[in-house]
Amino acid sequence: MSHNQLRTQTFNFALRVISLSKVLQEDQKEFVLSKQFLRSGTAIGALIREAQFAQSRADFINKLSIGLKETNESIYWIELISKSYSLYEKNCNELLVVCNEIKAMLISSVKTAKNNL
Question: What angle do CA 22, 68, 24 make, to 5 degrees?
Fold first, then answer.
């Protein structure tokens, strides 16, 4: 998957994160999990964007690695939301698939960048 595809995928993922967070806050009055999820889920794409203009190869790897950590954290929040609010289980399962795809792309990108050092 190209860098542009990764940017698009993480942007679209962030939009879905925003939607689910909004629903959790409005319908369930759930503010703690939803805000944690919102923060980590939207950070992934922001870090991909930051990596585009990294100051060095090491900075590029660092930004992608932090994005990978945020992806892993997002998976945790999705799983927690899914188990806590079964009403959103289908939506969460779809988000898990996308998040795991992003995770795989980031792992591959970090490995490639490290090998090119």
Answer: 15
pLDDT in tens, 31-74: 999 999 999 999 999 999 999 999 999 999 999 999 999 999 99
The encoded tokens of residue 104 equal 């795989």
Quote the CA–CA distance of 81 and 10 in Å, as a whole number. Answer: 20
d(CA 74, CA 93): 12
Neighbouring C-beta atoms of residue 67, cutoff 10 Å: 27
Mind listing the domains of the chain with CATH numbers? 3-111 (1.20.1440.60)
Q: What is the pLDDT of residues 76-89, one digit of tens each?
A: 999 999 999 999 99
Secondary structure (3-state) at 34: helix
Helix-helix angle 57-84:89-115, to 10 degrees: 160
